[in-house]
Structures are given as C-alpha cells and as structure tokens.
Amino acid sequence: MGLINKVKLNFSSMFKKIFNKKKARIGIYGPPNAGKTTLANRIIRDWTGDAMGAVSSVPHETRRARRREGVTIESNGSKVTLDIVDTPGLATKVDFHEFMAHGLEEDESKRRAKEATEGIIEAVKWLDDLDGVILVMDSTEDPFTQVNVTVIGNMEARSLPLLIAANKVDLPESSPARIRTAFPQHPLVPISALDGQNIDSLYEKIAQHFG
Amino acid sequence: MDMISEDKMNRMTPMEKVRMILDGVKNGKILVLEKGLTPNEEAKLIEMTMTEITPDDFAGIEIESYPTKNNQKLLDKIFRKPVIKTRLTVIGPANQLKTLRKDKDLISAIVSSQ
Prior knowledge:
The complex is a heterodimer. By secondary structure, chain A is of the alpha/beta class. Helix content of chain A is 41%, strand content 20%. Chain A has one domain: Rossmann fold (3-Layer(aba) Sandwich), CATH 3.40.50.300. Chain A has seven helices and six strands; from the N terminus they run αβαββααβαβαβα. In chain A, strands 2-3-1-4-5-6 form a six-stranded mixed beta sheet, with helices on both faces. Chain A is globular and about 50 Å long. By secondary structure, chain B is an alpha+beta fold. Chain B has one domain: Translation Initiation Factor IF3 (2-Layer Sandwich). Chain B is 32% helix and 27% strand. In chain B, the strands form three sheets. In chain B, strands 1-2-6-3 form a four-stranded mixed beta sheet. Chain B is globular, with a radius of gyration of 15 Å. The interface between A and B is large, with 38 and 34 residues.
C-alpha cells in the first residue's frame, strides 16, 4: 500500500472519530466452552429481548457463525450500534472421541466433529471482515492458549480494537488477574456471562471501545 | 524432530510454509520454527488443518508459540503500520505433543511416540 493510501486511511479513521460514526461489526471469539454464545445471548437479550443460540457443556455446540445486526448498546453517555457475529469456538484440533466422552454415539460424534471443523474454518474467515473483536477467555483456564495468541496477533496485525471478556468469574477458581498479566496491552473486563456479574461494565467498555 | 531456520522460512511463501508444516506433522514430525509464523499464517494453518482432519487418522495439530511482539517505531505509529515480531514456535501432531504449561517466557510440553 502506497504512502498516499496510508495517509488517506489515517484521515478516514480521523474523520470517523470526529464525526462519530458509531456502527461496527464485532466478532465474539474464543476457544470452545469459553462462554461465547452465553455472552452473545446475554447481550442480545439485554438490548433486543431475543436470543442468539443454544448453549451446552459439550464443546463445539456452536458450529455455524450466527449474526445479529443493529444491536444498539448505550452506556454512560456513549452509544454504539453493532452487528454481532457469534463465532464457533476456535481450536487447532478436533477429535471425535471427545464428543463420545460426553455420551454421544460414534456416528453422531464423527458428524459433529466434521461440522466443528467447518465451523472453525468459518470463524477464521470472519476475521477478515470485522471491525473489532470481543475475545472471551475462560478465567479458570491458562490464558496462553494458541487460540488466544492467534486471535490477539491477528487483531494487532490489522490494528483493530480488541476487548477481552474474562468470563466465568462466578467460579471460585477464576483468576482474571492472570489474564490481565498475560495480555496487559488490551482492555479487560471480568464478567460472568452466565449470571450477569459485572455485565454493565462490559457494556460501558463496548460503547467506549467500539464507538 | 525438524528444526527449521529463520532463513529457510524467509524464503517460503505463506502457503509453502503451511504445506510444509502439515506434511511434516502428518508424518509424525515435531517441527521447531526458529522464527515462527505471522498471525495471518497461523490463521491459515488452522484453516488448512481443519480441512485435513479425518476420524481415526489425523485429529489436528498442537501449536505453541510465544505471543508476538509489536516493534513499532515512531514512523510506523504515525502511519499505523503494525510491525509484528514473530517468535519461536513448536508444532506437532495433536496426539503426540501436549502442552503442560505455558507463560510468556516458558513453554513446557511433553512429546510421546505414536
């Protein structure tokens, strides 16, 4: 990209800020079972009254990206309208035996594994079409997973905003501080998508960060 | 185990790197990349891995790298040019390489034979 184009892009970004164009397409990303769909459901329910999709303790429950357009979030004087994309959990491996361990039959497990791989491909492709990402991390788990490192690296390489939702703080073993130490360069909000703990702080950050 | 130099990686296109990694891992090799992959190449690798997963044969890869560093200088910041420095990366078959612990400066992993 030439120098003139880069200057143009910077001016376009400045104009966007000056005239406050507040519409963004945001992806909800994270590893399987981090609580992405639970969070998407809570956001959609709180601001539109609907729901996004089914949740389950079996990994890869979401195997197709789901999109909800025009969700307006207003918090503390800031307002933003988002197109929200709830993506399938990212992973570098999908083993059908994992589904069998959750009680599914072999054929069903293989079918699910196949769909999960297709869902992961779709999630990766969506990275090219987003204005920002909410990265949902399970705060009871090690934050340095490859999925987290890859998503953060991709957002940084594109200079796009990223907000970390340190989920599952309702569990006693959760440690959002561990995530903050791991990725101090990005804003983080500790939440429980399940019981709504601290969700208002997340909305405030979303309105500020993506507005 | 194959240890791949930064020079060799620099001579390859993103798709050549992904193909080399997947061919090696599917043959049961553990690959250590001196320089690692860019975030975009990592995303491509995940995508390609998913297309090659088959039940009872290949369940995917285990990949471990340190978080990238952003080495922006003043001019890069003015023109918002991200300068990503990639770091050492280890990749292997998911059924042979397992991470025990990982932080920003240390990766502990266990390697088993098939």
